[in-house]
Design a protein that fits this description.
single chain, mainly alpha, Serine Threonine Protein Phosphatase 5, Tetratricopeptide repeat, about 0% strand, PPR_rpt, PPR-containing_protein, TPR-like_helical_dom_sf, repeat
Length: about 650
């Protein structure tokens, strides 16, 4: 029998053992017809690495796929070793293996062989799969050790595998693990690349972990890892986020001293920093400097300025400036203009920008629609929001989590629980996982409708499914129970927060204080303000106004004014709510003279009285009018009426 025919028969017998009897039988019958003297083997020989390699090199992937369940980690490792010089074939082979069923050494060997490709992306993808699937049983440190071992087995001098591991952790937002791998590299005598360090710095910056970024940057400097243009740009961005704009400019000078020339990203980062703080003249100063260095500003330069100026209602100034330098607004620019107009409540202008955007050839994005829908809900234009949703659906644009959250929150704010829960169900049907924001909105509307039992059930359901409630969710539920006087449940929620290490804020305590005041427990509410201070939470206007309002409703104006004086001593100026609460108390005591004085004080402070103010003053002064009437009768003077 010829060698080729033997190989075919050998392969067929293996495939037959692997369960592919139809294919094997069809090929076997052909073989037997040609060689009727050859007996059919009773037991198929074991699968060998040579057999697998033969199938891989001849690209018979359908056969390989049906053999993978029969391949042991040892056989896979041997095959991978033989494919080191052809990493493209190794990748094709690995793509047909279920990595999760392999042990860690084999998984890491697969990554190591595939990392020899010119592009790092396939190895990075495999590494992510390894980390995600084995996160519970294998630590990232274990993966690091196995990658070092695989690197040794392949006799590779490059540190690319370890650099990829750090990069992978960064992409998965595993901050601590990424930093741990970096220090493990140094500990084992490997020099991390500057680009690897930049991955960590960039992640820390994106997550606003600025203190950690500076500690890590200092270690880079101590380890004599050179910074490049990307490193400096990241650290300038960190300084801008911290509001240290002067130091950011100094960093620009430092990089130039070290021979690293800034690029347009450097200057745009500075412009963004100045613009986000409202320092537009500082941003323009940076633009002048960048132009003197030969860099022409682009849309990334002007869009941050446009964003701030739009919030100030001065977008036209920036648009004119952009036109003068030959820049035409793009879709990002139009979205900024639309968002700014919506935030100011100027929906007519917002929709005009949308029309202009479309005329210029820019299709509105889902972000555009989300912004407009949010603006419509803010202005109570529910029907218009429904029409816009219909337009989105007609265009075949799929709603995302943000759209659903905007809609659900909008309907919840307007008390339409039925519509909000219908959208929640639709969201789930579309395969979009509800977020904390989604459930907070739903809990809020249930509390607003005084359906506290349903709100508690939803809260427990959220926790039971593994979602950790945040401060806003707790506050929403607590406010509901405080509003209905269920203070025991409200305080039990505060204890739960402490157990879960969720720090309460001023909103939390203001809810509790309002609930206690509603129950007439003013001293307990006052003690709660002391607890706030002990926790390092500063009482605000709402805290003091809550107490003032509570005492005033009781008619205890003496205590109400004492709280007002404490409020003034701490630098808080009384608001309309403060004065109205005090006047309400004076009206109960019919203290007209003091009410009149308070009204004059209020006007002198530039606070415009409303209907509630005048009603309280009239009621307070009714006693004075009765005294005046009695005095007129006694003196024989005619009664004066308004």
């Amino acid at each position: 029998m010829s060698t080729a025919l033997f190989r075919t028969s050998h392969r067929i017998s293996i495939l037959s053992a692997a369960g592919y009897t139809r294919t094997a039988a069809r090929l076997s019958s052909h073989t037997l017809t040609s060689t009727t003297t050859e007996p059919e083997p009773s037991q198929p020989p074991p699968i060998s690495s040579d057999t697998v390699l033969d199938l891989i090199r001849s690209s018979q992937w359908h056969f390989v796929e049906h053999l993978t369940c029969k391949l042991t980690p040892l056989l896979i490792s041997t095959t991978l070793f033989n494919l080191v010089k052809t990493p493209d074939l190794a990748l094709n082979f690995v793509n047909r293996i279920d990595l999760s069923r392999l042990d860690s050494p084999t998984q890491c060997l697969a990554v190591a062989v595939v990392s020899k490709l010119s592009s790092p992306e396939p190895a990075l993808r495999l590494l992510k799969e390894v980390i995600i699937t084995s996160r519970r049983s294998v630590s990232v440190r274990d993966v690091f050790d196995e990658l070092v071992h695989a690197r040794g087995r392949l006799e590779t001098k490059s540190t690319v595998l370890l650099d990829l591991l750090v990069r992978c952790c960064c992409q998965l937002k595993m901050v601590d693990e990424a930093i741990e791998c970096f220090y493990l590299m140094k500990e084992k005598g490997f020099d991390p690349k500057t680009e690897t360090c930049n991955c960590i710095l960039s992640l820390l910056s994106r997550l606003n972990l600025t203190e950690k970024a500076w500690v890590f940057y200092a270690d880079m400097y101590r380890m004599e890892i050179k910074s490049n243009i990307y490193t400096y740009n990241i650290m300038i961005n960190v300084l801008c986020k911290e509001g240290k704009l002067k130091k950011a400019k100094e960093m620009l000078a430092i990089m130039e001293c070290f021979g690293v020339k800034p690029n347009i990203v450097t200057y745009n980062t500075l412009v963004q920093g100045y613009s986000s703080r409202g320092r537009i003249e500082g941003a323009r100063m940076v633009i002048r400097e960048m132009r003197s260095k030969g860099f022409e500003p682009d849309l990334q330069t002007y869009n941050p300025i446009l964003s701030w100026m739009c919030s100030e209602g001065r977008a036209c100034e920036v648009l004119k400036e952009m036109k003068e330098v030959g820049l035409v607004p793009d879709s990002v620019s139009y979205n900024i203009l639309i968002r700014g107009s919506c935030n100011r409540g100027d929906l007519q202008i917002a929709f005009a920008y949308k029309d202009e955007m479309m005329k210029k050839g820019f299709a509105p994005t889902l972000y555009t629609y989300n912004t407009l829908i949010h603006g419509l809900f803010m202005e109570n234009k529910i029907e218009a929001a429904d029409i816009l949703i219909k337009e989105i659906r007609e265009k075949g644009i799929a709603l995302d989590a943000v759209t659903y959250n905007v809609l659900i929150n909008g309907y919840c704010q307007h008390g339409d629980a039925k519509k909000a829960f219908a959208l929640h169900d639709e969201m789930m049907t579309d395969g979009i996982e509800p977020t904390q924001f989604t459930y907070t909105s739903l809990i809020y509307v249930l509390c607003r409708r005084r359906k506290l039992r349903e709100a508690d059930e939803l809260f427990e359901n959220v926790v039971g499914r593994g979602m950790k409630p945040d401060l806003v969710m707790y506050n929403a539920l607590m406010d509901g129970h405080c509003s209905t006087g269920n203070m025991d449940r409200a305080f039990s929620l505060l204890k739960e927060m402490d157990k879960m290490r969720i720090d309460p804020d001023d909103v939390t305590y203001n809810c509790l204080m309002r609930g206690l005041c509603g129950e007439g427990k003013f001293e307990e509410a006052r003690e709660l303000m002391g607890e706030m201070k002990r926790r390092g939470i500063k009482p605000d206007h709402v805290s003091y106004n809550t107490l003032i309002s509570g005492y005033s409703k009781k008619g205890d104006t003496k205590q109400a004014f004492m709280v007002r004086d404490e409020m003034l001593s701490l630098g808080f100026n009384p608001t309309l709510l403060t004065y109205n609460a005090l006047l309400n108390g004076l009206s109960k005591n019919q203290d007209g003279r003091l009410a009149e004085e308070l009204l004059m004080e209020m006007k002198s402070e530039g606070i415009t009285p409303n209907d509630s103010t005048y009603c309280s003053v009239v009621e307070a002064m009714s006693n004075l009018e009765k005294d005046a009437e009695m005095s007129d009768v006694d003196s024989g003077k005619p009664k004066i009426t308004c």
